[in-house]
Automatic annotation (TrEMBL):
It comes from Prunus yedoensis var. nudiflora. This is Prolyl endopeptidase. It comes from the Eukaryota. It catalyses: Hydrolysis of Pro-|-Xaa >> Ala-|-Xaa in oligopeptides. Residues 450-665 form the Peptidase S9 prolyl oligopeptidase catalytic domain. Belongs to the peptidase S9A family. It is an enzyme of class 3 (hydrolase).
Length: 675
């Protein structure tokens, strides 16, 4: 068993940023910072495009043959560096304003074509969505957390997309008692009434997209500050309200990131970005003053690394409690800690914000067959108490499912972990089972094997689900990440292929039953392996994929590009240029057979511009030699994380699962579909 202490680098990217340094500056508890980006709101207007694709937007009956796919027009655009000339015929698809009528028309035609192809199984998709939604306990609350004289929690209501942020006063007889793992919020008729601080459903009424990324209560429990995004572009507005009345306090803070913290009861710390959307400045805002008069606490002129220590063993997270020496005593190497043990062979553990001065550690545990379970751990006694487990309806029984941890051998003989789950009474393990393999492998991000209720619909249809923990991620420590970035990035792709070949060799599936999935930098993975080994896969899903790597990394005016050079390299240097070109998916599409492919994008996406997946699809359609289907679905009112409502996200899962099952001939086609 190998123990790894991981020193993680955080930066603004398709990953995260410099918040840890700011926390040290203002002595604040840990929070998670989502990186941000920019976009623009648009008015969608119809326009003609010189392409046969217009036919796709015409309403058709299911008895008519499928329309031809949209074929984007070609406009030659030459780019030269180091004597190497590249021609990008689809460069015209990029529009930073998101308002070009020809481009919007093309995206609408792609959506219409996708809608037509999926229309034959819309009934199945709707039934699948109802099945997925039927597992969700729509009216529920999160595990209450005690803070001062209140319990704070979130409530979901039946039929509502968003949460309510609530609190309940602690009875006087309990308010002075110290925090305990046995604390329980009273809910009976004699309990203090529930107070709704903020209802996201009301706030979201006039927006296509709505997200609150931070919700912070002031130390005296009188005020609440929250970061709000109404476009999906991850540029936040920070509001402060009275916790009791909901009345606004002062003017909003605009053009901020999702990070905020209270600095006392009358001031906030927040972060803004530079022109490339890299978080770079921490500000102190005093309530009642203008934002223009805020004090800059820190300006990070260089995108440096900041250290955060995590502990992992064999690629799995570990929770270990250490007792530090008394104040004034030397700090020695930590040893002899008390480990918190977990039963599943593959699992996920997430930390939760806790009262800094308390002796209670709150964490959430789940596995691919165990729903999220919130525990309070007493640091003195070592007692762990389950506070809440997510309710899964629809007759779910964890004992019906099996989780496994396997290891595939990469070309350089590195052992790559794979997490697997399936329903034991539906699987034959003779090569005939359908399998969906997921991968990411970038930014030192750990894709831990956690629970997802909607995934049960795949498992209950006889699927095996697997996660390839490939290099470039952080599952196996810092070196694991280093060996999958910069000039070693191709290890990410060959690791994934090795995992696919292992699953085929061990008869978890066959080439004809293997589907793959990845998002964002994971979409780069999907694009790369499709170019390298398209014969291995029956279908692929590339969600908001980062596929035009070289062109994007050569343009420092694109948001996040300069901060991304530490991940991919700076292609203004010849060595990085040609290495990046050798795997960038758009640059490596060639005349060969490809499997069925679904590509998604968000028009307002600040991390992966919609034009990257659009160009990838256009070039695939132009060059591929097969008759398989390529579908492109672009959300015109969403960003990198797609739609914001909880049920809307379930609809997306149902859509993707239906596409995958159609590709495997597991649902009947009714007038349209995949070959």
């Amino acid at each position: 068993m190998r123990m790894v202490m991981r020193m993680q680098s955080h930066r603004a990217s398709r990953g995260v940023s410099f918040v840890n340094l700011v926390q040290q500056l203002v002595y604040l508890p840990a929070v998670v910072l989502s990186s941000i980006g920019a976009s623009a709101s648009i008015t969608v207007r119809a326009s003609s495009l010189s392409s046969e694709a217009a036919a796709a937007s015409v309403r058709m009956s299911q008895s008519e043959p499928p329309p031809p796919p949209p074929m984007a027009k070609k406009v030659e655009h030459k780019m030269e560096m180091f004597g190497d000339v590249r021609v990008d015929n689809y460069y015209w698809l990029r529009d930073d304003s998101r308002s070009n009528p020809d481009i919007l028309s093309y995206l609408q035609q792609e959506n219409a074509y996708t809608q037509f192809l999926m229309s034959g199984t819309k009934k199945f998709e709707d039934e699948l969505y109802a099945e997925i939604r039927g597992r969700i306990k729509e009216d529920d609350i999160s595990a209450p957390e005690r803070k001062g004289p209140y319990y704070y929690y979130q409530r979901t209501l039946k039929g509502k997309e968003y949460v309510q942020h609530c609190r309940r006063l602690i009875p006087n007889c309990e308010a002075e008692a110290p925090l305990s793992v046995y604390d329980t919020m009273p809910t009976g008729p004699d309990a203090p009434p529930e107070h709704v601080i903020l209802d996201e459903n009301i706030k979201a009424q006039h927006h296509d997209y709505y997200s609150i990324a931070a919700f912070k209560v002031s130390p005296n429990n009188k005020l609440v500050a929250y970061a709000e995004d109404t476009k999906g572009n991850e540029i936040y507005t920070i509001h402060v309200i009275d916790a009791e009345t909901g009345a606004p306090v002062g003017l909003p803070l605009v053009d901020a990131t999702s990070y905020l913290e209270w600095a006392g009861d009358e001031a906030l710390v927040y972060i803004t970005m530079d022109e490339t959307l890299r978080p770079d400045k921490a500000w102190l805002h005093k309530l009642g003053t203008e934002q223009s008069s805020d004090s800059c606490l820190y300006h990070e002129k260089d995108d440096i690394d900041h250290l955060v220590v995590y502990e992992r063993e064999e690629g799995l997270p570990k929770v270990t409690i250490y007792h530090l020496p008394d104040v004034g005593q030397p700090l020695k190497s930590l040893h002899g800690g008390q480990a918190v043990n977990f039963l599943d062979p593959a699992y996920s553990v997430d930390r939760s914000e806790s009262e800094f001065s308390s002796g209670i550690l709150r964490f959430s545990y789940s596995s691919m067959k165990t729903p999220p379970s919130v525990y309070d751990y007493d640091l003195k006694t070592g007692i762990s108490v389950l506070k809440k487990i997510e309710t899964v309806l629809g007759g779910f029984e964890a004992s019906n499912y099996v989780t496994e941890r396997k290891w595939a051998s990469a070309p350089d003989r590195t052992q790559i972990p794979i997490s697997i789950v399936y329903r034991k009474d539906l699987i034959k393990l003779d090569g005939s089972d359908p399998l969906l393999l997921y991968g990411y492998g970038s930014y030192e991000v750990c894709i831990d094997p956690s629970f997802k209720a909607s995934r049960l619909s795949l498992l209950n249809h006889g699927f095996i689900y697997a996660i390839a923990h490939i290099r470039g991620g952080g599952e196996m420590g810092r070196q694991w990440y280093e060996n999958g970035k910069l000039l070693k990035k191709k290890n990410t792709f060959t690791d994934f292929i090795a995992c696919a070949e292992y699953l085929i060799e061990k008869k978890y599936c066959s080439k004809a039953r293997l589907c793959i999935d990845g998002r964002s930098a994971g979409g780069l993975l999907i694009g790369a392996v499709l170019n390298m080994r398209p014969d291995l896969f029956k279908a692929a899903v590339a969600g908001v994929p980062f596929v035009d790597v070289l062109t994007t990394m050569l343009d420092p005016t694109i948001p996040l590009t300069t901060s991304e050079w530490e991940e991919w390299g700076d292609p203004r240097k010849e060595e990085f240029y040609f290495y990046m070109k050798s795997y960038s998916p758009v640059d490596n599409v060639k005349a060969q057979n490809y499997p069925n492919i679904l590509v998604t994008a968000g028009l307002n996406d600040p991390r992966v511009m919609y034009s990257e997946p659009a160009k990838f699809v256009a070039k695939l359609r132009d060059m591929k030699t097969d008759k398989n289907i390529i579908m492109f679905k672009c959300e015109l009112g969403a960003g990198h994380f797609s739609k914001s409502g909880r049920f809307e996200k379930l609809q997306e899962d149902a859509f993707i699962y239906t596409f995958i099952m159609k590709a495997l001939d597991m649902v009947p086609a009714q007038g349209s579909g995949l070959n």
